[in-house]
Write a structure and sequence with these properties.
Blueprint (H helix, E strand, L loop, with lengths): L1 H63 L3 H25 L17 H32 L3
Helix pairs in contact: 2-3
Length: about 140
């Protein structure tokens, strides 16, 4: 009798639990396949993003390799910056002479002084704005 009850319980368990475990196993297999597909899509998207970044960096290096801005900077900005710094130092410190302007560095005439100020404003403004636009551009272009 005990064997008959054991056989009935075994057949019920095999009839109910077996198909249930089979269903859950197939559901897990389906989820695993979906994960594999999604992972493959992510890898492809990252590879495309990486190729874009490589090309963008290549273009940036090519643009920075041009000598034009460097020549303009050396011919205009360096002398203007040096002159303004020399006038600033000369009119700020006495250097033991008891009066300011002891080195005798004259300021430029008004028509050139305005140009000198414009160049300095452009240099400082572009340095600040360049960093801001670079930060904003990297923030906008970052991957989601």
């Amino acid at each position: 009798m005990l064997a008959a009850i054991g056989a009935i319980i075994t057949s019920i368990v095999n009839g109910v639990v077996g198909p249930l475990f089979g269903f859950l196993g197939k559901k897990t297999d389906t989820q695993l396949e979906g994960f594999k597909t999604a992972s493959g899509v992510d890898v492809q998207a990252y590879q495309a993003f990486l190729a874009y970044r490589v090309e963008a960096e290549r273009a940036r290096v090519a643009a920075n390799g041009w000598w034009g801005p460097r020549v303009v900077f050396m011919l205009i900005a360096v002398p203007v910056g040096l002159h303004v710094a020399a006038v600033f130092i000369d009119t700020t410190f006495t250097f033991g002479t008891g009066h300011y302007g002891s080195m005798g560095i004259p300021k430029l005439p008004d028509e050139y002084l305005n140009t000198e100020h414009l160049v300095l404003q452009f240099l400082f403004g572009s340095a600040i704005a360049g960093q801001m636009t670079s930060a904003i551009g990297s923030w906008i272009g970052r991957p989601k």
